[in-house]
């Protein structure tokens, strides 16, 4: 809220106190001393009669405390023309004397004593106060739920759910979610396909609440949406395809650790709130803002569980290589989301390879089968290298580039194996490629990411949708606070 829209302060000195604060009780005589010498107004947060004999102003609603951002009591302000000029927090004799211009305050008291938390910042009260006094920040339509109506079932009945229960997006929860970013609630982030609807930070926050996000996850969701709604990523095409692909979010940078993302055991599975809620929030925005619903624009023949949520962090600390985002052009050390158009993961098992050439050949043999062993050039792949496999390449000194280049070499395929009818399989390429040698993936079409649990000689492939201008490209977006 802007200073001009706050309720004005009385002129002179203004104190905020509560009886349930030992320091406020301690300085009650000081306030009585000040009231005899200067103009003083006292707002009390809990007991309208405290301090005795000073005719305190009732702020048990916490309206004044909330508007004037009182974080601790006692707080002493100096006001002119209704606006704060200076403040002192807690009891500091020198600060109170300098602010009031009155010497000799509290001669029998200690020189300093810390205060207590203001009731206006109590975690249980703050969201309700923000909704009550700051609700003008929210522009979204309010939906009234009947007193006898179950909130969870009401959200489901209105078609907002992905099939699982949603967290009701109350004003308190949405305002609390918006505290997770410095971006303005009305900032338009993107035009969301397929209906091409403008989407604000506030709309994303609403869906993030429903997805179960914490406020600190919101910047990641915002960046993921910005990446998804680019022409390069082509979210509309990804929705409309009959293939099972959806957006896969990979997170790099220090934010992974700050918000508690999983990059280790069960990295693609259940159990981590940040991973699951971030991926789910993106999908809910596409559904609820953009209109991308299964059976309508979303035409997937089978789909995959990752279309509910597919988000994970890279294990940068244990990786033998630089982070994925950095290899794709991000600043070193930046917080970044990488959006890959992918299907569900499939496991690669190689328990015996202890040299990089053998393991690379195992990877290549598995990558050859992506979508079909005879289909080439149309797709990309995200190869998730597990820690025990990663150790093989680290100990041999293989760089990320060296492994990717070797995989491309191993995936150069004679045309005679790819043509229709070869191997007794009708699927394949035209007879004209019989004498050619074709790569399974176009240059740069194999992306390596390091993640997974430390026990088990496993890696995984996340196959891509149609790559390039006819489909979707991998897109990076730096995460803004």
How would you briefly describe this protein structure?
The chain has 15 helices and 20 strands. With 481 residues, the chain is an alpha+beta fold. The model has no long low-confidence stretch (mean pLDDT 95).
Description of the molecule:
This protein has helices at 22-35, 63-67, 93-100, 126-134, 151-157, 171-178, 201-211, 218-228, 235-240, 255-258, 273-288, 324-327, 356-368, 387-396, 400-410; strands spanning 12-17, 40-44, 57-58, 72-73, 75-80, 83-89, 91-92, 112-113, 116-117, 188-192, 197-200, 246-252, 311-313, 336-349, 379-385, 412-414, 437-439, 446-450, 458-466, 475-478. With 481 residues, it is α+β, with helices and mostly antiparallel strands. The strands form 6 sheets. Strands 12, 13, 14, 15, 18, 19 and 20 form a 7-stranded mixed β-sheet that branches. It has a 5-stranded mixed β-sheet with strand order 3-2-1-5-6, covered by helices on one side. Helix 13 crosses helix 15 (400-410).
Write down the Rg: 30 Å
Q: What is the helix tally?
A: 15
Q: Please, how many domains? A: 2
> How far do the termini sit from each other?
19 Å
Q: What structural class do helix, strand and pairing data support?
A: alpha+beta
Measured by DSSP, the beta-strand proportion falls in 15-25%
> What can be said about the biggest beta sheet?
7 strands, mixed
**Overall geometry:** elongated
The helicity comes to: 25-40%
User: Which consecutive residue ranges, at least 5 long each, have pLDDT under 50?
Assistant: none
On the 0 to 100 scale, the average pLDDT is 95
Count the E strands. 20
């Amino acid at each position: 809220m802007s200073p001009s829209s706050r309720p004005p302060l009385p002129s002179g000195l203004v104190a905020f106190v509560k009886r349930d604060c030992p320091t406020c009780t301690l300085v009650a005589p000081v306030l009585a001393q000040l009231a005899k010498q200067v103009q003083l107004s006292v707002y009390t947060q809990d007991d309208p009669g405290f301090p005795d004999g000073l005719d305190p102003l009732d702020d048990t609603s916490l309206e004044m405390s909330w508007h004037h951002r009182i974080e601790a009591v006692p707080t002493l302000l100096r006001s002119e023309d209704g606006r704060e000029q200076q403040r002192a927090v807690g009891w500091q004799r020198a600060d109170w004397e300098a602010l009031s211009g009155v010497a000799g305050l509290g001669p029998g008291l200690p020189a300093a004593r810390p205060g207590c938390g203001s009731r206006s910042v109590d975690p249980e009260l703050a969201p309700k106060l923000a909704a009550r006094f700051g609700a003008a920040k929210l522009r979204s339509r309010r939906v009234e739920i009947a007193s006898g109506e179950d909130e969870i079932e009401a959200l489901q009945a209105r078609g907002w759910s992905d099939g699982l229960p949603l967290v009701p997006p109350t004003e308190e929860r949405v305002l609390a979610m918006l505290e997770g970013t410095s971006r303005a609630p009305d900032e338009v982030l993107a035009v969301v396909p397929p209906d091409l609807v403008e989407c604000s930070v506030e709309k994303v926050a609403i869906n993030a609440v429903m997805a179960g996000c914490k406020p600190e996850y919101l910047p990641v969701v915002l960046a993921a949406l910005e990446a998804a709604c680019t022409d390069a990523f082509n979210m509309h095409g990804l929705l409309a395809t009959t293939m099972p692909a959806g957006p896969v979010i990979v997170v790099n940078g220090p934010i992974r650790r700050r918000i508690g993302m999983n990059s280790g055991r069960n990295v693609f599975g259940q159990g981590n709130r940040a991973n699951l809620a971030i991926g789910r929030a993106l999908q809910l925005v596409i559904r609820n803002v953009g209109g991308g619903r299964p059976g309508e624009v979303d035409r997937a023949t089978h789909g995959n569980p990752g279309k509910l949520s597919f988000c994970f962090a890279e294990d940068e600390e244990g990786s033998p290589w630089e982070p994925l985002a950095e290899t794709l052009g991000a600043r070193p050390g930046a917080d970044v989301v990488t959006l890959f158009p992918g299907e569900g993961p499939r496991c690669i098992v190689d328990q015996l390879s202890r040299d990089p050439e053998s393991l690379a050949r195992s990877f290549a043999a598995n990558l050859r089968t992506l979508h079909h062993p005879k289909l080439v050039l149309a797709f990309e792949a995200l190869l998730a290298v597990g820690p025990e496999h990663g150790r093989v390449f680290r100990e041999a000194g293989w760089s990320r580039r060296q492994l990717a280049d070797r995989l491309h070499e191993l995936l150069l395929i004679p045309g005679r194996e790819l043509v229709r009818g070869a191997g007794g399989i009708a699927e394949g390429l035209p007879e004209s490629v019989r004498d050619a040698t074709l790569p399974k993936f176009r240059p740069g079409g194999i992306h390596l990411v390091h993640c997974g649990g430390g026990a088990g000689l496993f890696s995984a492939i996340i196959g891509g949708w149609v790559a390039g201008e006819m489909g979707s490209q991998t897109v990076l977006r730096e995460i803004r606070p």
